[in-house]
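tool=predict chain=A
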Amino acid sequence: MTQFVDVPCGRIAFEEAGTGSPVVLVPGMGDLRSSYRFAAPRLVAAGYRVASMDIRGHGESGAAWDDFSVGAVGRDILALVTALGDGPAHVVGNSMAAGAAVVAAALEPEKIRSVVLVDPFVRDMMPGWAARLLFGTVLRRPWGPALWRVFYRKEFASQLPPDFDVEAERVHANLAQRGRFEALRKMATASKIESERSTAAVRAPALVVMGSKDPDFAKPEVEAQRVATMVRGSVRMIDGAGHYPQTEMPDAFVNALMPFFAAADAPHDLVAHGS
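tool=predict ok
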């Protein structure tokens, strides 16, 4: 059942299930909260209260916003954590939403138990003018939606999920709604400078999960190690996965999260003594 949390200028859609330590799952731009449709039930079965959200401009969240930056999405994450009311949450962010998770952890560290950065974009990978020229041109109607459809499929490096055709149609039908593809384009051209600057302030345990064949990075493992260094975290590579390991290889993805969550949930004094 879809629920909503009100934030300045709009509302954010989410769904939740389970009990226990809260986990907030955040998809990247151009995707829906159903990106975690395989991972979320596994986390619930493991004893977590799981809330999957649609980022602003996407899914069932509002379409019209003035701000599509990583900082704005990070504040939406914090609003959802507050609404859940179960104490600090593990936050899992994919792609651009990884940068948003970093901002959230830096702004209100008491609300974030840990961060998992999945195939993360937490820094600007090209100059702002180049991003605006590239994405501002490519991601424009009428040709943009068709190009995004091709791009989305190629993000799965080794295997398509069994329901790929149905899910891809849901994603593209959502983007066809008024204002939603424009939201994607604005996110694509927005700077990640706030998340890059926020990495130094992250105090929560951090894990970078990266598909070894992510086509968005020339050398995925190198970028994973770079981001892990920035947030003083660790890395788990998922062999053969592309940009969406939570969908492409959900068992390996959840297996990467379980020991990390358990360590982050352990009492501080036990962790400090290696117990």
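The first helix runs from residue 39 to 45. DSSP finds twelve helices and eight strands in the chain.
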